Automatic annotation (TrEMBL):
<dbReference type="InterPro" id="IPR036291">
    <property type="entry name" value="NAD(P)-bd_dom_sf"/>
</dbReference>
<feature type="domain" description="Gfo/Idh/MocA-like oxidoreductase N-terminal">
    <location>
        <begin position="41"/>
        <end position="164"/>
    </location>
</feature>
<protein>
    <submittedName>
        <fullName>Putative oxidoreductase YcjS</fullName>
        <ecNumber>1.-.-.-</ecNumber>
    </submittedName>
</protein>
<dbReference type="InterPro" id="IPR006311">
    <property type="entry name" value="TAT_signal"/>
</dbReference>
<feature type="domain" description="Gfo/Idh/MocA-like oxidoreductase bacterial type C-terminal">
    <location>
        <begin position="206"/>
        <end position="273"/>
    </location>
</feature>
<dbReference type="Pfam" id="PF01408">
    <property type="entry name" value="GFO_IDH_MocA"/>
</dbReference>
<dbReference type="InterPro" id="IPR050463">
    <property type="entry name" value="Gfo/Idh/MocA_oxidrdct_glycsds"/>
</dbReference>
<keyword id="KW-0560">Oxidoreductase</keyword>
<dbReference type="InterPro" id="IPR043906">
    <property type="entry name" value="Gfo/Idh/MocA_OxRdtase_bact_C"/>
</dbReference>
<dbReference type="InterPro" id="IPR000683">
    <property type="entry name" value="Gfo/Idh/MocA-like_OxRdtase_N"/>
</dbReference>
<dbReference type="GO" id="GO:0016491">
    <property type="term" value="F:oxidoreductase activity"/>
</dbReference>
<dbReference type="GO" id="GO:0000166">
    <property type="term" value="F:nucleotide binding"/>
</dbReference>
<dbReference type="Pfam" id="PF19051">
    <property type="entry name" value="GFO_IDH_MocA_C2"/>
</dbReference>
<feature type="domain" description="Gfo/Idh/MocA-like oxidoreductase bacterial type C-terminal">
    <location>
        <begin position="366"/>
        <end position="456"/>
    </location>
</feature>
Length: 461
C-alpha cells in the first residue's frame, strides 16, 4: 500500500512554497480580498431556536463574509425571522418557505444548503440546474443512489460544489498531516484504520404532538413518507433513518472520509462489508427495511438508527476500515470514543479533532516535517490552505474543484450507507466499486434508493 517516499514527496512548485511557508496557510486578511458585492448568496435551511443541528445558519453566516446575502429560506418561519434579524442582515433579506420560489425569483449565484439531511440532494440538484454554485452541509446524501445522481448533475452543469466536511481543511490540519504520514509510509504497509464515531440514542416510542405555529411540517417532511409531528422526530432527525443515517452518516461522513483518503481509496470503494450492530428500541429483530421505506411496514415513533455497531470495510488494496460506535482493542488496552487509529506494519498513529499522537509522530525530524508540509500542500491541490468556506469561494472565483468535492464525498457516503445496509440486511455483503451495485444481494440493492413523495420536487422550469 505504501507509496515510495521519494516519489510521493517529489517537489513541485507549490510544494516548494509550502516548504518555505509551513502549511502555506492563507491569513484571515485574504477573506476581505475575496469579498464580492456582486456575488449574491441565498441560505436554504438555517436552523434556529427550535432546532438542534443548526449548522446551516452558521455556514450561511460564514458565506456572507464573501458575498452579498440576499435571501433566506426555511420551512420554519420563526427560523427565517431569527436569521433575518441577525446583525449581519438587519432584516433586509427576502424570506421564503419554498426553496424553488427563492431560486426562481432571486436567481442567486450561490446557494448554501443547511437543511436536514434528506433534503440536501433535492435542493442542491434544483439549485445546480438553475445555474447556482452550491455549498452543502454533510452528510450530502440519504442513499447511495442519491450520490450517483448528484455526481451526474454536478458533472452536467459544471458548477462548483463544496461539501461541508471541514476536517479536510481545518482542525489545525491534523487530519491532513495524518493522511500525509500514512500515504508516505511512515507507519508502513498493510494499513488498517480503526474508526470510532460514537453511539446514537435508541429511546422511544414518543408521543405525537401538535405542530408548532409557523412550521410547515409537510414541507419539512418533503420527499420522505408522511408522518405525524413530534418534537423528537423534528429536532433529533439524525436518529431517524427516514431523514438521516444516525452516527454512521453523521461522524462517519467525517472519519470514514479521512480514512479512505489516507489509504488512497477515496476515488473508489470497498469490495466487502461485514459486521454486527443493534438498532433503536422500536426496531424488532429481522425488521423488513425495504417494506418500511416503501410505506408498507410501520415502526412506532422512536429513534431507529443503529446504536451499537462494528463493521469492516475491506478494499482491493488489502486495507480495512473498521467502523465502531466505540473502539476497544482485543486486549482491552486501547479504547476511544471518537477518532481514527491507523495501524501499519511499522507503527500506528491516532488522530481526532483534539490531537495527532503516536510514536511515528513523536519521532518526526525537522526534515520529516518539511517533507510532510510539501505533501500536505499537494493533498490540498496546491492551493493555499484556508478555511473550508474560503476554499469554496476561491474555487467559485477560479472555477477549480474544491477540496471536499462531490465525487470523493459520494464514495465516502457510499461506504457509510453500506455500513447501515449491512446491518439492515444482517448479512455479509459484496460490492462492485466499478458498477456500484451489491453482488448477488437483491435486498441490499433495493436499499440503495428510497421511494420519494414528489409533491415538493418539481424540476426547474
Amino acid at each position: 500500500m505504501a507509496i515510495e517516499r521519494r516519489d510521493f514527496l517529489r517537489t513541485a512548485t507549490a510544494a516548494a512554497i509550502a516548504a518555505t511557508n509551513p502549511y502555506w496557510f492563507t491569513s484571515p486578511s485574504s477573506v476581505g480580498e475575496l469579498y464580492d458585492d456582486d456575488l449574491t448568496i441565498a441560505a436554504i435551511g438555517v436552523g434556529g431556536s427550535r432546532g438542534r443541528y443548526n449548522r446551516g445558519g452558521k455556514v450561511a453566516r460564514q458565506a456572507a463574509k464573501f458575498g452579498k446575502m440576499i435571501a433566506v429560506c426555511d420551512v420554519d418561519e420563526l427560523h427565517n425571522d431569527e436569521f433575518n434579524a441577525d446583525k449581519l442582515f438587519e432584516g433586509k433579506l427576502k424570506k421564503y418557505i419554498d426553496y424553488r420560489k427563492l431560486i426562481d425569483a432571486e436567481k442567486p449565484n450561490i446557494v448554501v444548503v443547511g437543511t436536514n439531511d434528506h433534503w440536501h440532494v433535492p435542493i442542491a440538484t434544483y439549485a445546480l440546474r438553475a445555474g447556482c454554485d452550491v455549498y452543502c452541509e454533510k452528510p450530502l446524501t440519504l442513499t447511495i443512489d442519491e450520490g450517483k445522481q448528484i455526481c451526474k448533475v454536478v458533472k452536467e452543469t459544471g458548477k462548483v460544489f463544496q461539501v461541508g466536511t471541514q476536517q479536510r481543511t481545518e482542525m489545525d490540519r491534523k487530519f491532513l498531516k495524518a493522511i500525509a504520514m500514512v500515504q508516505a509510509g511512515y507507519i508502513g504497509d498493510n494499513v488498517k484504520a480503526h474508526i470510532a464515531i460514537g453511539t446514537a440514542p435508541g429511546e422511544g416510542p414518543f408521543a405525537n404532538t401538535q405542530t408548532p405555529e409557523k412550521l410547515h411540517w409537510d414541507f419539512w417532511l418533503g420527499p420522505a413518507q408522511s408522518a405525524e409531528y413530534s418534537l423528537e422526530r423534528r429536532k433529533f432527525f439524525r436518529w431517524y433513518l427516514e431523514y438521516s443515517g444516525g452516527k454512521m452518516t453523521d461522524w462517519g461522513a467525517h472519519h470514514i472520509d479521512i480514512a479512505q483518503w489516507a489509504i488512497g481509496m477515496d476515488q473508489t470503494g470497498p469490495e466487502a462489508i461485514s459486521g454486527t450492530g443493534k438498532f433503536g428500541n422500536v426496531v424488532p429483530e429481522g425488521f423488513d427495511w425495504v417494506s418500511f421505506f416503501e410505506g408498507k411496514e410501520k415502526l412506532e415513533n422512536g429513534y431507529n438508527a443503529a446504536t451499537k455497531f462494528s463493521v469492516d470495510l475491506t478494499f482491493a488494496n488489502g486495507s480495512v476500515l473498521n467502523v465502531n460506535d466505540e473502539y476497544v482493542s482485543d486486549d482491552g488496552k486501547t479504547k476511544f470514543p471518537n477518532g481514527i487509529l491507523f495501524e501499519g506494519s511499522r507503527g500506528r498513529i491516532f488522530v481526532n479533532r483534539g490531537k495527532l499522537t503516536g510514536k511515528p509522530v513523536e519521532q518526526l525530524t525537522a526534515s520529516d516535517n518539511r517533507n510532510l508540509e510539501e505533501a500536505i500542500a499537494r493533498l490540498y491541490r496546491n492551493k493555499p490552505i484556508t478555511t473550508h468556506m474560503q476554499n469554496f469561494f476561491e474555487c467559485v472565483k477560479d472555477r477549480s474543484e474544491p477540496i471536499s468535492d462531490v465525487y470523493t464525498h459520494h464514495r465516502t457516503m457510499t461506504s457509510c450507507h453500506m455500513c447501515n445496509i449491512a446491518l439492515m440486511v444482517g448479512e455479509n455483503l459484496r460490492w462492485d466499486p466499478k458498477t456500484e451495485v451489491f453482488v448477488g444481494n437483491e435486498v441490499a440493492n433495493n436499499l440503495m434508493a428510497r421511494p420519494s413523495r414528489s409533491k415538493f420536487l418539481a424540476e426547474v422550469s
